[in-house]
Amino acid sequence: MNQTPEPILLVRDVVKKFGGLRALDGCSLDVRPHTITGLIGPNGAGKSTLFNTIMGLFTPDSGTITFNGGQIEGKPAYRLVPLGLVKTFQIPRELRNLTVLENLLIAAKDVPGERLSRLLLEFATGRRREREIQARAEELLAFVGLAGLRDEYAKNLSGGQKKLLELTRALMSDPLLILLDEPVAGVNPTLAVKILGLLQELRDQGKTIFLIEHDMDVVMNRCDWIVVLHQGRRLAEGAPSEVKRDAQVVDAYLGG
Amino acid sequence: MTDLYSAVIEFVNFLIPVSIFAILALGLNLQWGHTGLFNGGVAAFFGVGAYTAAILMTTKVYPSSFDPGHWGFSLPFGVAALGAVFMAAFLGLLIAIPILRLRADYFAIATLALAETVRLVITNAEGVTGGRIGIREIPRPFDAFAAGRPALSDGYMALLAVGLLMISLLLIEFLTRAPWGRVLRGIREDEEATLALGKNVYKFRLQAFVLGCAFMGLAGAVYASYNTTLSPDGFDALVTFTIYVMVILGGSGNNAGVILGALLFYSFDWVSIRLDDYLPDWLALRFPNIRVMIIGAILVAFVIYRPEGILKERKRTYPPVRTR
Questions:
Q1: Do the beta carbons of residue B213 and residue A149 sit within 8 Å?
Q2: Residues 6+ apart with CB under 8 A from B257
Q3: Which domain holds residue B147?
Q4: Residue contact A134–B321, C-beta within 8 A
Q5: Cα–Cα distances in Å, from B273 out to A152, B287, B288, B299, B315?
Q6: Is residue B34 one of the residues assigned to a domain?
Q7: What integer pLDDT is reported at residue B322 of this predicted model?
Q8: Residue B240 belongs to some domain of the structure
Q9: I need a labelling partner for B23 at 20 to 30 A (CA). Which of A93, A246, B149, B261 fits?
Q10: Closest approach of chain A CAs to the CA of B213, in angstroms?
């Protein structure tokens, strides 16, 4: 951890207010590339707010966010996905009356058939791209073991399968940085192990993972780096073993 | 012979309104069935289309003591229909830009208010629309060939209406089958999730809304020509309600389904009006109200027992692609 490469994500002094509540109160942190970085902190610390602000679902009141060298704060999500940023939701947001396969197809980027202006003019290109993304989707479904449910409506999946779909869908846009809001919460232990293995595999392929998690086993054993958030600010950060011993962190979150 | 002749005329005059309703239902289906946009102002876009086409087709009428007069440009049907499509789409764009960001319920209220505004404007823009008197003697496109034979005129009109319906169906089916349509359905299911997946939700909703309005304008042009007269009474909230019933009964999100909905709804109308002659007086007198009650009961039954409509939305499956 000595030769630190340029962070892929830099958050600087970000403030996000909801009425009188400062959900993010001058929050600054870095995420280094090719790591699994964990974001922990008590309920209401601002973890989900931070993710939503990074993803452009909330506009920050002040501060800057830099992703892969470019400033992104306040940009809408549809401008960020093409840059290689994607986020999953804590409670899976499957598109209920679309099939599992369609849930993946809709998450692809650079799809000419989605543009009215190109739909007719570039019909052949569109068809080719459509086959490409479908092949990619089928590959991912096989990879996570959802291939058998390809043509099932997403609403009919079990809770764990929806969680897996949510993660798989995020991979369709071929992101550099994936923000995961509690990827294994409420998932049975076997599936959780599978998802965590998957995350490590993705990291080894060169992707960066930034995740919110409450399960200390997961955080301490699977994350390379941990950031602790408290009252909308960074309280501490470090390798799991350091954070575990930090008196402030134990006070605020981990407990005695 | 005369029986057959009148049956043909009757049939043709059944087909035309069905086609007009079906085009309206297709337009609404694009907005509501596919995208989940509750357009409470179908009547406004239909009305603007009808009046635009009528004004473009008729000759100008100057104001007189008994007629406020209206504009007129004596243009052919093709130009008038394009004008109607354009004006309805333009009105859709104008209203959508400010209100499309509103939450669904406020969007519904705003479009409902638009419909009432448009109706009042049509009623009061006397020198332009003929006010309460409206517009008469709107020409039909092929009347030059019909040479004063009403049956032939109706026949040509039916060909035109059914033809335009088919073109509308093909176009909308193509668009909704394409990846573009997939994004619309994603937005319908979960707007925020679709945004987080990188889709410009606002742009897609705007496109779907404006396109839907364009089809409603086309329906208006056909209606103006078929009816040959227009007055503001034909464009109240009841029209909007009727089209919703067709879409919901037929099957939201299923393009063929909403056409079936239009066909069944109009058939019910057609039969129930003719039933009048065979009913005892005490019933016939109350039948107009009973009709509406029956429609209401059917609608409630559907919403409870078969909310997806007669033809439910097709599950879109994709044949496997050969990899490598």
A1: no
A2: B250, B251, B309, B310, B311, B312, B313
A3: 2-235
A4: yes
A5: 45, 9, 8, 19, 38
A6: yes
A7: 65
A8: no
A9: B149
A10: 16
Half-sphere exposure of B272 toward its Cβ, with a 13 Å CA cutoff?
A: 18
Q: In the sheet that A9-18 helps form, which strands lie side by side, from edge to edge?
A: A21-31, A9-18, A62-67, A70-71
Rounded to 5 degrees, what angle do the CA atoms A1, A33, A24 make? Answer: 100
Chain A residue nearest residue B206, CA to CA: A116
Is the pLDDT reported for residue B203 higher than 80?
A: yes
Which segments of A110-205 does DSSP mark as H helices, in order?
116-119, 123-144, 159-171, 189-204
Interface of A with B (CB under 8 A): 55, 57, 76-78, 80-82, 86-87, 89, 93-99, 101-102, 105-107, 109, 111-116, 119, 126, 130-131, 134-135, 138-139, 151, 153, 169, 173
A99 and B180 within 8 Å at the Cβ level: the answer is no
Q: Which residues of B touch A87 (CB under 8 A)?
A: 196
pLDDT tens digits, residue range B61-96? 999 988 899 999 999 999 999 999 999 999 999 999
Largest CA distance in chain B: 79
- Domain total in chain B: 1
Question: Under an 8 A CB cutoff, do B316 and A78 touch?
Answer: no
Residue B163 lies in a domain: yes
How far is the alpha carbon of A10 from chain B, nearest alpha carbon, in Å?
Answer: 20
Question: d(Cα B53, Cα B47) in Å, to the nearest integer?
Answer: 10
- pTM for the model stands at 0.94
Are the C-beta atoms of residues B175 and B210 closer than 8 Å to each other?
Answer: no
Residue type, B181: G
Backbone angles phi and psi of B251, in degrees to 5: 130, 100
Nearest residue of A to residue B188, measured between CA atoms: A95
Asked whether residue A1 carries a pLDDT value surpassing 50, the answer given is no
Contacts of B30 in chain A (CB under 8 A): none
Instruction: Pick the closest to residue B186 from B251, B243, B253 (CA basis).
Output: B253
How far is the C-alpha of A202 from the C-alpha of B179, rounded, in Å? 28
